[in-house]
Amino acid sequence: xxxxxxxxxxxxxxxxxxxxxxxxxxxxxxxxxxxxxxxxxxxxxxxxxxxxxxxxxxxxxxxxxxxxxxxxxxxxxxxxxxxxxxxxxxxxxxxxxxxxxxxxxxxxxxxxxxxxxxxxxxxxxxxxxxxxxxxxxxxxxxxxxxxxxxxxxxxxxxxxxxxxxxxxxxxxxxxxxxxxxxxxxxxxxxxxxxxxxxxxxxxxxxxxxxxxxxxxxxxxxxxxxxxxxxxxxxxxxxxxxxxxxxxxxxxxxxxxxxxxxxxxxxxxxxxxxx
Length: 274
Hints:
With 274 residues, the protein is mainly alpha-helical. It is 75% helix and 3% strand. Strands 1-2 form a two-stranded antiparallel sheet. Helix 8 (207-228) packs antiparallel against helix 9 (235-273). The chain is globular and about 75 Å long. The chain starts with a helix and ends with a helix.
C-alpha cells in the first residue's frame, strides 16, 4: 500500500501512466478492428457476445502475461541463429536479422496468420457466399454469415496472443512499475469494450470501410513479419498512413451522403411538381 501511495504522489508515475494508456489504446485498435470484422461474420444474435468474449480474453491474456513479466522479457532472448552466405550491407551485417527469439517467431507466425486472414476476408467481401450450415437463432440460413461462433473465438484468441505480447513488451519498455502497467492495460481494454459495438456497427454500415480496415490488417501483418525479421518499421508511420487513409475515406463518405441528399431532394421536388 505504501508503494502505491508513493507512486500516486509521483508526477513521473502519472506521466508514465498517461503515456502508457495512450500507447495501449493505440495498440489495441488493431486488435479491436480484427475482432469487429470477425464478429460481423457471425449471426446477428452472436456478434455482441463474440466481441465481449474476445475483448475479455484479451484482458485476461494481458493480465496473465503481466504476472509473468520475467518470462515475457525472456522471450526476447535469442533462441537460434540462421547461417547466412548472401550479400552483406555496408554496416557489415545482413539485411535481415538472423538471430531469432521466441518473440520474433510469435510475431512472424502472427503476422503470417493476419496476412492470410485479411486476404481471405477480402475474398469473402468480394464474393460473399453464405454457408448453408450456419443458421440464425430462428433456425434459417443467416444471410452474409461465413463463420461459426467457435471458429471466430479461436481466431480472435490467436490474434489476442500476438497483440497481447506486443502490448506487454511495450509496457515493460516504458515503465518498471507493475501497478502502472496493470492500470494502463485495464483502462485500454475498457476503452476497447466501450468502442467495440459502435466500431462494429460503423464497419458493418459502411462496406468500403471494411475493405480499408482489411488493408490496414494486411499492412499490420506485414509489419509484424518484418519486425520478427529485425526490420523495425516505426509505429508512427503505420498509424499516420492509417489516419490519412481514414481521412480520405471520411471525405468520400461525406461526398456520397451529399450526393444522396441532393438526389433525394431532386426526387421530392419532381414529385411535388407532378
